[in-house]
Records
---
Amino acid sequence: MAWRGFSHLAFGLTLLGAAGADAATEIGDAERGAAIWQECAGCHAIGPDAEHGIGPKLNGIFGRRAAGHDDFNYSKSLARAGRDGLVWTFETLDAYITNPRTFASGTRMSYPGLKDTGQRADLLAFLRDFSDKPRDIPEAEPTARRTVPELPPEVLAMKGDPEFGEYLASECQTCHRADGVDVGIPSITLWPEEDFVLAMHAYKQKLRPHPVMQMMAGRLTEEEIAALAAYFAAAE
Amino acid sequence: MILNRRGFLGTLAASGAVLAAPAVLGQTKPRVVVIGGGAGGATCARYIAKDSDGAIDVTLIEPAEIYYTCFFSNLYLGGFRDFESLGHTYDKLASDYGITLARDMAAGVDRDARTVTLAGGDTLSYDRLVIAPGIDFVDGSVPGWDLSKAEIMPHAYKAGPQTQLLKAQLEAMPEGGTFCMIAPPNPYRCPPGPYERVSMVAHHLKQNNPTAKILIVDPKEKFSKQGLFEEGWQKHYTGMVERIGPDFGGANVEVRPDTMEVVIDGEIEKVDVCNVIPGQKAGAIAATAGVTDDKGWAPVNPHSMATRADPMVYVLGDASAQGDMPKSGFSANSQAKVAAMSVRAELTGSKAFPAKYSNTCWSLIGTDDGVKVGASYEATDEKIASVDSFISQTGEDAELRKATYEESLGWYAGITADIFG
């Protein structure tokens, strides 16, 4: 069951944070979220001393399978979702709190749902603070949302800019050796531009399977891929 | 929201960062001093020197002639690498990149005068200072232990003689003895590191002392790659590893080095080897420079790695408080490139691009059984934020695990070439 896919239409954070310099967007404002949390706190507890109440405690909710506490009596509906593989992420939690009964028709959570995208984001930012920290557990759920840059025409003129490519390439060269030595990790030095571009887009679209490369290529824009291709094609 | 590079550059310029360039153009070459020749400092020195083509004068302060990497040092404990393979010299940084090596300890920083004093008495002036000192240990973190006891109960969490000492103790363990690890509280260097170490110790014991036991005393409820490690311990080292978490008193521990005892929640355990990995803070020179917070780490601007306390001073790697990145050699290397770009942009007016960071940590569980965890990160104004992550899965086939291990060997060769030239 494609839980992660299902929720996409419900989750939008476009109205958050209008400030200019960010390369990633904070999930929301946790302080504002703390105020919204008061609507939840009648049934749920969170924090170091939290115990189950009418609803389960919500520490560590991010990254946990739905109905994941053995010592809480969940509705059949959520227990089934957990068995089917539902994991709580920003996307799935956002879909759930938008309208709990639409998401899981048999849920016992009587909350009618929170329609405002920004308020949901704030609430989720508050909840996120009580789950695993990526600093300590790197595989923990993300704490921010990647921003896809919208590039104005003059930046598009940077296409194939080798200086930009050289900076971006420093990230590749942590693993792919600049001197083209090819042991354990393939060489990408002197790779023809077109092949490079096709390969990066294949990783971006997850057509090529390697998870590190899917992640690295997944955040490169077309312009960045072009710059890298130009740099590596001519690298000494 | 809309992000574009022009906006990014504009913001930097408005804050004075880019516009600072002309201020130093009138003098002789701008000077950068880097304290610490590890994954962060050496990378940063090399990238500044390399990419500025000699326009910036770079000095690297590092007392050691050979740097032993903490990453992969567990593989030495397990017998998968020899000690010499962890060592790297700074020769190429001097010969190929023109970096001046100051073989000394940094003893003091005067941020008003923009000078660094060396233990030997020399004073170096800087236009930008990069501090990359790694970690030091928090006093009193494990009652009964301090650095003076490290010859009895090694930390082995800075690679070098301590690593060799732990290996010698491991080899000298009596048959059926107990190896104890006191695991550190968060945050600490290399989140999977203690547990990879347990795997490597178990690998050694299985071959040489198969009735020996490993006891982990852990103040944390959870740790990185926990499912993968526990699966691997069960598979390769059945019954050998026991972990006492905080539910069973793992956070309430005292050690008695003189009698080789560990007191866990009041219960005395006699052990044969005790690897104490204490709580950690930024290397001392960061505090001396006055750029650390009350938790002992140096808060930095996520866009550049410049400290919040002083934009002329950068802190990289383990010593920084930056947000979501784990403290690792890979992270330090990644942060160093962003800092190098920022330093060059400020001193020579070169282009500054939006910061991008990434990290991958490979761990070896047993022969040809490698796993990895990684994430990519971007800067918000508040922190370096995790935006995506992946982790090896439990139940992967042997071929994939072997390929992951081989990939880690390639990464080691790649990153050490990237750090040391």
---
Amino acid sequence: MEKLELQKIANEVRKGIVTAVHSAKAGHPGGSLSAADLFTYLYFQEMNIDPRDPKKPDRDRFVLSKGHTAPGLYSTLANRGYFPVEDLKTLRHLGSYLQGHPDMKHIPGVDMSSGSLGQGISAAVGMALSAKMSNDSYRVYTLLGDGELEEGQVWEAAMFAGHRKLDNLVVIVDNNGLQIDGRIEDVCSPYPIDKKFEAFNFHVINVADGNDMDQLKAAFDEARTVKGMPTAIIMKTLKGKGVSFMEGQVGWHGKAPNDEEYAIAMQDLEKVGEALCQK
Amino acid sequence: MSEVKKIATRASYGNALVELGKIHEDIVVLDADLAAATQTGIFKKAFPERHIDCGIAECNMTGIGAGLATTGKVPFVSTFAMFASGRAYEQVRNSIGYPHLNVKIGATHGGISVGEDGATHQCCEDFALMRSIPGMVVASPSDDVEARALVAAAYEYEGPVYMRFSRLATPVINDRPDYKFELGKGIVLREGKDVAIVANGLCVAEALGAAEMLAADGIQAKVINIHTIKPLDEELIVAAARETGKVVTVEEHSVIGGLGGAVCECLSEKAPVPVKRIGVQDVFGESGAAAALLHKYELDAEGIYRQVKAFV
């Protein structure tokens, strides 16, 4: 798929995120928006998946270890055709299948329930291990927050993945630099992130701008060539990317826009969309 | 008189896994640097490629089990009860329980009969913890025969199962042709009309011993083996309560939240009768030989006898 096409989709994904969180009056827009390009790249370019057959055995798997950014995943799945985009408005509503955090039992395309930080990566490691044991060719991707790296289980999982040389596993870190209580280096710094994964025997790819499709493509293409070790892609991103008043603002980690803010956010994204159409 | 055969149910666990492993290629056994103690080493020897040592990292092991289950494998996640249910509680709840994944948890070294290691390793809270997770089956077999039957039944059951095994070698009490194991179904081992003793794990054999002593005093105790704490065989327990009017629970677990708790919850709603909960009385254990500990905490036949007698 062309870069421009991916950018347009990512912008639609962002609209879905903002719309879902606005409708829910709760949720996590900041980290959903920072990872919107990554979600789009994975589901529209990188992964071997089929929305018409969400459980097909040889599909690539994705585990959203930073499960609170479910709006980003849901919007991507909806735009990919797993379920109607219209349903995004039911996010977090009583009776909706779109739970506040990913629920594999009820949401088409969700490969693992997640949300309690640090746990998703272990499940992803289990999936990758299973493929190795059965000589299956599918790949496993998991997205972690940078704040999530403060959870000890992440490093238990990393140690195991490195030890088992799981080269079918790609761990992506959304390094948007902010967590609930502030900047990650002020709260409890996980830096240097790359050197930590290297020490756990990962092939590490630093992405200077994880909101740039070309850089994402280069990183995932490189990851496919890696043999004998898992890959960690550490991508610098902008929290709240695409919505002017949310960008780089820690306050938008877990807060919904009101009607007025929602209108501004959608205007921002419409403008981006129009600019992309001019290209 | 021939010596009573004694086998630790952790050994039954390892042996049962090997037998099942021969038939079912989807069985994968996980351990956390305790393969010798949990006895999954027996499986490792038979099927090295299907035994995964996760190192000393139980939370990650639990999550790996969940991931394996999503791909159709049937993982048996193995470690001490303390770590399986305690350290990794939230992983069991959120990564296995919430998505109702087909993971079996083999928790060895349950209760105070762990012995010399002392309180840090004597888990007396696991039934309470695991029982509170929606959809989790919780079982504690009474001997080798039952433990092997449980492992086989757990494999056949689709969903998460927590199985607690003992470190201590205990008498084989179910070696008879008509023995039948069914998850969620209790077994009446002795009839009696004066009191019903409901027990699980190694306490079942001790309860039978206590019933003999009670009989000598003219007290006829019905003894029920409730190997499955959840789902509880409410029908059997309610019937026993109505028949005897007095119920005693016996378990190598805190009197809070385990078998005693489950039985009280059931009876207070469906057939209120006086209940005596015999177990670990809201205290931590301590180091000592297993038999000496069971004696001190009144979980041997003599201690159970004394407490039941005082109750009836």
---
Amino acid sequence: MKKKKRDAAALSSELIRRPIRRWFPVFLLPTLVCFCIGFIWPFAQGIYLSFCTFNTPKDATWTGISNYVKAFRDAGFVHAFKNTALFAIVSIVLINVLAFAIAYALTQKMRGSSLFRTIFFMPNLIGGVVLGYIWSMIFDAILKHYSTYLTANATYGFWGLVILVAWQQIGYMMIIYIAGLQAVPEDMLEAAKIDGASKSQTLFRVVIPNVMPSITICMFLTLTNSFKLFDQNLALTGGAPSVIMNGAKVNMTELLALNIYSTYNINKNWHGAAQAKAVVFFILVASLAIAQLTATRQKEVQQ
Amino acid sequence: MKQRYKQHYSRGSNLLTAVFIVVGLLWIVPIIAVAVNAFKTNAAVNQNAFALPNADTFVGFDNFVKGMTFGNYPFWKSVGYSLFITLASTALILICTSMAAWYISRVGSTFTKVVYYLCIFSMVVPFQMVMFTLSTTADTLKLNTPWTIPIIYLGFGAGLAVFMFTGFVHSIPLEIEEAAVIDGCSPIRTFFSVVLPMLKPTMISVGVLEIMWVWNDYLLPYLVLDRTKYMTIPIHIQYLKGSYGSVDLGATMALILLSIIPVIIFYLTCQKHIIKGVAAGAVKG
């Protein structure tokens, strides 16, 4: 399927190609210029600056890999790294199990299923900063009954963030699962019924194998989303509480993206290390995304 | 046919509906809590955020007035900038990237392939990677105003949009455009009166994704814009919360309520397109 499309593009007839080429300044140039300003240049400069000591890009001096050494020696970064991994695992399991269960229930014959769909998806329209403040108010109100508050304990902050993100993303994943479930061939389900399969047999032997592509997509979406999470983290706890660990201040509820951001804001001596952290972060996120792409491609081939 | 289906709700399905009403409440209560607390005094919000306002704690629209005028930066200005930035950026992205995608797909040279793969590459780069250099670049080029920030959004958001448009343009049969060229259409005319109408469904998908992204984006405008002069809604709410030693929760909730009402209206009116757009965008990963 993919191959065919590519051939069609390659055969794009001269009749069309030749006149279009002359219109390069109109069609491609504006996007290309903006793409260079908004992405290519900052990206290249970012890689370069991660090997420099700098305050602003103009006064950068090459210092080799010292920024990377400094980044990995930073207890806060290491903690954020572990925190993010743990957070990713918990939220992947929680979000996908719940989203699949909800999607499965909503695709059964059921009163009000489209209304529930609308409700569950709604939080996706609200921005992360706003969501963070809404939930910090709610968590504080609940924890008040136990005479404590959200930023008193890193455990509260961690699980608070898990609940917030689950609340937000379940609806999103649900939509993808519903699309997958609706594509399960009707005759397969009928055949299973005629053969006397029980409901759970049908679910595990017929439905789930058929929605595997959706499961892969959702797993990786939740994975990359949890790694890239920033706004919610900033607004809910902002990294608080912080403790002193090996003589360095460590924000206990900080995830990677927020840690990079707060490293910039320490002082100018940390700019280089922050940029190095960002490069490490980029390599991490990019490899996850590439793993996803290969996994989905393989699934496509199998089908 | 449809009616026959409608009549059969088993007892099990009614039970399921009952369970979902309870679960659904978990999704609605936080929003209701915002709406309720927007009308209470700050002390009352701190005391018990789940209580309904009573005669002592009800303050009417005071919180709205307080929130909107707080800190010598009027809230309506943030709303205006948010609206402008979202609409202008989305329009710019839709027009420029659809044209670029058509060019990339139809010319198919080595150069356009490189551009295309760079676009795909940009989709996996997290914003933190470029945030510092992007904000200094924007400052140097004087792109740090709401009127020019759409250029930054186009640049950073081009990847996904070009990718989605190119995928669709590939599936349009060439014969239609060939016919247009033979009839004497210039590329401009071919694009705008033949290709563009066919791109409409993808336009809606991409448009929805971009609107949701730009409207809710906090960090990019925060770093790029000159904050003393320009704020967007997320920046304003963060500023309100961050700049006060002890936060006025009532006023914060009032502003949050004001900022989510348009979003919810937008969602309820364009729900079908939004959900379709999300499903289409998700496949990209």
